[in-house]
Predict the structure.
Amino acid sequence: MNTQAPIQLEHAARPLEGRVSLVTGSTSGIGLGIARALAAAGSAVVLNGFGKPEDIAETQARIGSEFGVRMRYSGADMSKATAIAEMIATTLDAFGRLDVLVNNAGIQHVAPLEQFPAEKWDAILAINLSSAFHTTRAALPAMRQQNFGRIINIASAHGLVASPFKAAYVAAKHGMIGLTKVTALEAAEANITCNAVCPGYVYTPLVEAQIAGQARAHGIPRDEVIRDVLLAQQPNKRFATVEELGALSVFLASDAAASITGTALPVDGGWTAH
C-alpha cells in the first residue's frame, strides 16, 4: 500500500523556482538550449564549457536578465576529475544546494577502428562518459542530504544503436546509459532520479555547418543532404531542436517526473524504432 503524501506539483510557469542546476558543456548547442530552458523554468544555472570569455559573460548576463535567475560559470575541464570536483564544490558554496545535474559535455571523432587514434579514444571516453561519473559522484552526497535530486544524462541514439566509424562515441554513450541505470537504482530511495536523453540529429549551428560542407563535398542540394545523408536514419526526416530537449529536461527535473527514473528516452524521430 502506498502511504506517501501526494506530490504537490509546481506552478506550471516556473516549475523549477528555487532550484539550482548545473549543465556541463553548456556554452553552445544542446547544452546552452537546456540551460536556457532550466532558467526559463525558474532555476539558477551554472554554465560550463569552452569559448571566448567575453561571449560566455554575455550569454551568462543575457540569460540571467531575461529570466530573472542567478547565473554562474565554471570553466572546469571535463577531462579532469579534480577540476570537476572543484566545480561541484564551488556550486555548493555559492548556492548552498545542487538540485539538477545535466551531464551534456561531449566530443566526437570519426575513423575506422584500426585507424582510430588511441588518444582520441581516451579523450572521448574521458569527456563523454567518465566526466558524468565524476560529476554524479561529487553531487550525490548533497542531493541525498537535501532529499532531492535530478540527474539528466545526455546520451544519444548512439547509446541505443551503433554506426560505423564512431567506436569511442558509441561505446561512451552506451556506457552513459549503463551509468544512468546504476545511479537510478542506488539513489531511488533518496528522491533522486536519473534518466538518459537519447537525441538523434539535433539542429545546431555546428550541424548547419555540416550541411553546407556536405553539400559542397557531394555537389548536391542542401535539402538532399538533410534528407538522404544526415537524416537517413530518422523516419520523420526532421531535426530535433534544442528547445525540445530543453522542454524534456525541465519536465525530468520537475516534481511531475518523480517516478520516472532509470530510463533512456529517445528523441530521435523514430530512428531507434527500426
Observations:
- The chain has two domains: 20-201+241-262, 203-238.
- The chain has eight helices and nine strands.
- The beta strands are 20-23, 44-48, 71-74, 100-103, 149-154, 192-199, 202-203, 240-241, 264-267.
- The CA atoms of residues 44 and 70 lie 5 Å apart.
